[in-house]
Amino acid sequence: MKVAVAGCCHGALDKMYETLELLQQRHNVRPDLLLCCGDFQAVRNEADLRCMAVPAKYRHMQTFYRYYSGEKKAPVLTVFIGGNHEASNHLQELPYGGWVAPNIYYLGYAGVVRFRGVRIGGISGIFKSHDYRKGHFECPPYNQQTIRSAYHVRNIEVFKLKQLKQPIDIFMSHDWPRSIYHYGNKKQLLKMKSFFRQEVESNTLGSPAASELLQHLKPTYWFSAHLHVKFAAFMQHQTNSKEELPKATKFLALDKCLPHRDFLQIIDIEHDPSAGDSLEYDAEWIAVLKATNSLINVTQSSWNMPEKNGLHAKWDYSVTEEAIKEVLEELNHNLKIPCNFTLTAACYDPSKPQKHVEPVHSINPQTTEFCAQFGLTDINDRIQQAKEEGSVRGEYEEEEEEEEMDSTGSAEEPSEYNTDNSGLSSINPDEIMLDEEGGDEDLSTCSVDPSPDHPPDFSASFSDIRIMPDSMAVSSDDAMDSTNEELEKSGVSKQVEEKSLSERPLKRIGGNENGNSGIKKIKRRNQAIYAAEDEDKTE
């Protein structure tokens, strides 16, 4: 089947679906499924806009509300994950996933579903070490801290995904897995985004949590967005035993949805011809949710997931075939996800603006039904209960603004990861803008990008294939030039360049692992970013 993959659409649904329609008219290509890798911006009304971490000047309604109201319907089944520019109050209603509009499905904080036999997983948000070990405690109305922390990845979601044993075909994350840039055309990447150089050379660009999942899950495809540049890589994984067949992951990062940008990619995926056309639950994932339900935390307290260190009676929460069978029996072997979308908030009405409506913390009937069916905890209900009991405060204790963007994590509690990629390794120029200046007007923008409107297309230009080391550190193996050939076999390079740019073998990187010298560099980046944005607006 044909799968369309999009990067950050920033609420421009009309533009995205019109592009698909144009693709069909010109090339007779009609995707069966559309995947979006975050910054979807499912904004229903003015209250939702106030829950989105962008400056006020970027709070535009865009077009999602028309799909939410029923005025329009997505012409193709759309599955998306959350990014760092979202209506967090809306997505928070669906922690386990659900329909945000007819034919548009959100995967939740983390999730796995199936479509035509293809197994699709994803994790929402971006990585910040100082929030990684906390629970999902945030709820609207958000303050200056929680409007950001609400979209930060938590260790419990990574832990759940690491319990999976069955193969994953497609996985999505918003920020890139750390070190992935060493497996593609790094030279061309740095030519297009020169301000990535410091983090690439110090190996701090990207999410260490996503790298951990990439190493564990070894999906056939991994798609990301966030950095607003198209980039491809091919990663061959190490095998754990001589009997295990070698696995490889084809990585592709997508550009943002803008005119003249190549923000969509069409790939061919093998599927089960006998499978139906409905989106389905994944039985193993449901079993994992049931097994890990007792680990749910809705407090700001930091805690580690169970591990084999002598401190936990149980550390393996992977599920047995019997547990998966029980889920199938509960569903009478009918895995079809019910089309139970309902409106949970008033829809934007251009003729009746409501600029001063405050967001409220809502319980979504879809989540209530899902939790009741599988015996799970409704996280939002637990948060409300905890607030009533006084065990959860709605605001952080006062902390300096710099702690939010401290890329080294020096002001934070110890993490299982040595460095924080918050401002540097997830280098979204938008996120840097948000943290440096403070205040409501300084929440991150959703349309800043230092690239020109017509960047060169290098989506499958590679310089080397490397065996992924256990630590995801930089490899010093000799460079190889066979990546394009591998991708041509898989169908990824259908719309990309044929030639490959050579690059010298990678060397191990020394120096400051924590990236303490990066603060001044960020400010210089911002100057370039602002200048690029002004150029975009004048063209």
Structural summary, described in words:
By secondary structure, this protein is of the alpha/beta class. The chain has a single domain, classed as Metallo-dependent phosphatases (Purple Acid Phosphatase, chain A, domain 2). The chain contains 18 helices and 14 strands. The strands form 2 sheets. The protein has an 8-stranded mixed β-sheet with strand order 13-6-7-8-9-11-10-14, sandwiched between helices. Strand 6 (110-115) and strand 7 (118-123) form a beta hairpin. The chain is globular, with a radius of gyration of 22 Å. The relative contact order is 0.17. Keywords: Hydrolase, Iron, Manganese, Metal-binding, mRNA processing, Nucleus, Zinc. Its cofactor is Fe(2+); Mn(2+); Zn(2+).
What key phrases describe this protein's structure?
alpha/beta, eight-stranded mixed beta sheet, 539 residues, 14 strands, six-stranded mixed beta sheet, disordered C terminus, 18 helices, Purple Acid Phosphatase, chain A, domain 2, globular
